[in-house]
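User: Assemble these into one structure.

Assistant: Restating your components, then the assembled model:
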Amino acid sequence: MKNILVTGGAGFIGSHTCVELLNENYNIVILDNLSNSKEGAIERIKTITGKEVKFYKVDLMNLFETEKVFEENQIDAVIHFAGFKAVGESVQKPLEYYENNIGGTFNLIKAMKKYNVKNIVFSSSATVYGVNNKVPYTEDMPTSATNPYGYTKVMIEQILSDIAVSEPEWSIVALRYFNPIGAHESGLIGENPNGIPNNLVPYIAQVALGKLDALRVFGDDYATPDGTGVRDYIHVTDLAKGHLAALKYVEGNPGFQPINLGTGKGSSVLEVLHAYEKACGKELPYNVTPRRAGDIAESYAQTGLAKKLLNWEAKLDIEKMCQDSWNFTIKNPEGM
Ligand code: WQD
């Protein structure tokens, strides 16, 4: 299985996964509409790996253009990243999120069926564990969501699971990411959010750069060791390597299988902040503010299934994640 279609391959996790695919001598075709990424990321993928990449600026909502990518390439498997992913924005624009994330997946699946491609790794999220499950999260727990973005992940997992029942020759893995952070060690690709970052580490990076005054710590009254929110942060390169392991797994394992990609270790907001201070060599100011609506106290993975089925586990620690994030930030102060 050599030719891999990567939808959303110019994005944060997609671009890092493309680097690892090329390093393992896969041929890749990137399909991306560049709505939340830049074509420059693709040039940088080529620079890092010294390999060629086929790129199609295509929106999955355009079935004709999507099918053309399959028509022109012998695709063996798909890694599906393309989708809107901002929680807050999804609350403001639910229809756009449902149409784009679910409608785009419908078109991708239709094109795969037409060209007899039945292996897919889907970019899901720990957000599907909702607010009623107890940590550490395991893949057999019930899924739910608290926002339209989360519901698109829950619904797409359900759609893929139903396809695997109706057409048993499909091999489908849904990778449930915890909190991906960091950047490729070259500093050439990394997290490149538009505007004021919603997520913790890109926000801290802007404080360290001096572009934002201070970190707002959203609540220090949670039932956690230091009162601040605890999450399972995972280096984006570890996450990318998890996709290669999942790609090998789908080659010989029909059915639908959700799998956690996390470290199994929780870190608090203040622990991450201090790790970032060590990485950038500066004291970083913060203010404690009220909790952010919708936030939970703790989220971290039970990682046994990834080890058992994929023989994969995260290797890089929070210090390395912050070092690589800072390295990317100082090399790209205006973003990529
Ligand atoms: C982490 C911790 C905040 C920002 C989100 C999405 C999830 C997934 C990953 C896509 C929390 C605290 C944050 C800040 C803060 N994305 N925080 N100040 O909310 O765990 O997950 O990103 O799949 O779907 O929900 O990540 O980085 O926003 O927050 O104190 O300025 O940092 O309260 O405890 P989250 P996050």
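Residues 85, 87, 125, 127, 179, 198-200, 203, 216-218, 229, 231, 269, 292, 295 surround WQD (CB under 6 Å).
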